[in-house]
Write a structure and sequence with these properties.
single chain, alpha+beta, Ribosomal Protein S5, domain 2, Alpha-Beta Plaits, 11 strands, 31% helix
């Protein structure tokens, strides 16, 4: 699994153009999972009820994760809308994103090739206007630490841009850290070495209670 950071939409975007009297309106938004993508698609249908088609595509996770893709031509000829839109999303390198293009027919047929260019081109142009932020893939680490070693741990968290997810103060400090997944081995090794073996951070096993 690729643990490298990837881009996600920072803010929603609406962009439109007219092609041979048909109006194509692209809506883009951050959707971290498939349900969020479906909810966004439905929200655009409600916002543009008079549109003849609401074609869509989504990448509801990392850009490289092909398990969470979806697209629909929504009544346009097969392969002329959803697939070229998905190709644009995948080519952008942006993850956790859904695009919906609402079309208002202007009376002039575009043909299959024209539709592919219209839907793909509308989304391509919209993507150039999209603001993005970096999404880091974080991992959870359990830690038990004496108060005397807290300064060392806080220093390492700052160095690796990690943070406390949950912390409890008792006879010792216990809690869960969030550290970028790709640097976990190095972070744990540094913590162990610099504390002279006193502090061990262990990855939280998924699925455990």
């Amino acid at each position: 699994m690729n643990m490298s950071p990837y881009l996600i939409p920072a803010t929603p975007l609406v962009w439109q153009q007219e092609i041979k009297k048909s109006r194509f309106i692209a809506y883009l938004a951050h959707t971290p999972n498939a349900q969020a993508a479906k909810d966004f698609i439905e929200s655009v249908r409600i916002r543009e009820p008079a549109a003849g088609h609401h074609c869509w595509a989504f990448v509801a996770g990392m850009p490289s994760d092909s398990r969470i893709l979806g697209f629909s031509d929504d009544g346009e000829p097969s392969g002329t809308a959803g697939k070229p839109m998905l190709a644009q999303l995948q080519g952008s390198g942006v993850g956790e994103i859904t695009a919906v293009v609402a079309r208002y027919f202007g009376g002039i047929k575009l043909g299959t090739g024209g539709l592919v260019r219209a839907y793909g081109g509308t989304l391509s142009s919209a993507l150039t206007q999209l603001s993005t932020v970096e999404q880091r893939i974080m991992a959870e680490l359990d830690v038990h630490i004496d108060y005397s070693d807290m300064a060392l741990l806080e220093f390492l968290l700052g160095e690796y841009q990690g943070l406390w997810q949950q912390i409890d103060y008792g006879a010792e400090v216990t809690g869960t850290l969030l550290v970028e997944a790709r640097v976990v081995p190095e972070f744990c090794r540094q913590l162990l070495d610099r504390s002279q073996g006193r502090v061990v951070a262990r990855p939280v096993e998924s699925g455990t209670g």
